[in-house]
Amino acid sequence: MKKKLALMVATLPRANADLCPYCSLDSNPDLDHFLPKDIFPEFALHAPNLIPICTVCNRKKSKSYKREPGGERLFIHPSVEPTPDVPILEAEIVFQPEAVAVIYAVTVSNVLTAPEHAQLVRHYKRLGLAGRYRVRAASHMAAFKESVATLHAAAVERTLQQKIETATVGEPLNGWLPALYRAIDAKKAETLDWLISNG
User: Fold this and answer.
1) Are 53 and 28 in contact (CB under 8 A)?
2) pLDDT digits (tens, 9 = 90+) for 124-153
3) 26-48, pLDDT tens digit by residue?
4) What does the alpha-carbon distance between residue 62 and residue 89 come to, in Å, rounded to a whole number?
C-alpha cells in the first residue's frame, strides 16, 4: 500500500512540491483525502483525491468538505481549481515602533468568477490563513530587521531592494511571502525607515 501511495504522490504537480498547496507555509508530510474517505470510500486511493498537505491544514480541514446549510464546498482543490496568474492575496503593512503588523486578505479579482472567489474566501477563513500568515510575516520581518541591524543605511536599502526583486523566486505567486514583498514595495520608504530605526 505504501508503494502505491508513493507512486500516487509522485504524479502530483511538482511546482512548489515541498510546500503545502493549501497554505504555502509549511512542508507537506501528510496525505489528505480531499473528499473524506469515511464519506467517499470509493475515492480513498484515487490519485486526484490524495493531496500532500501540512499537518496544520490537515488538522484544520479534517473531514469537512462542504459548508452547511448551503452545502458549498469549503476548500479549493489545488491541482484543478483556478490558479490565476495575477495576485489575489494582498498584504497591508502597519509599522509600529517595536514591530510590524501585516494584515492579509483575499482581493476581489476580475479573473475569478463570483463562486470561485467565494470558495477561495471560505478556504482562506476555514484554514485560518490570515492569522497564520500574519504570524509568519511578523517573524520574517523581525528576523530581517535583526539581520541588517549592523549595516549602514545604504547597505540596508540595497538589501531591501534585493529582497523585493527576489521574493517570488521559488514561491507561489499568491503565497504569503510574495504578497508581503508586494506590500513592502508599495511602502518601500516606510519599510526602510523601520528597518534602520533603533526600535
Assistant:
1) yes
2) 999 999 999 999 999 999 999 999 999 999
3) 887 788 899 999 999 999 888 88
4) 24
Q: What angle do CA 130, 133, 139 make, to 5 degrees?
A: 140
Q: Which residue type occupies 44?
A: A
92 phi/psi in degrees, rounded to 5: -120, 130
Look at the block and give the residue holding cell 490524495: 50
pTM of the model: 0.84
DSSP 157-173: HHHHHHHHHHTTTTS-T
CA 84 vs CA 12, 108, 116: distances in Å: 19, 12, 11
Q: How far apart are CA 180 and CA 90, in angstroms?
A: 8
- The per-residue DSSP string of 48-70 comes to GGEEEE-HHHHHHHTT--B-TTT
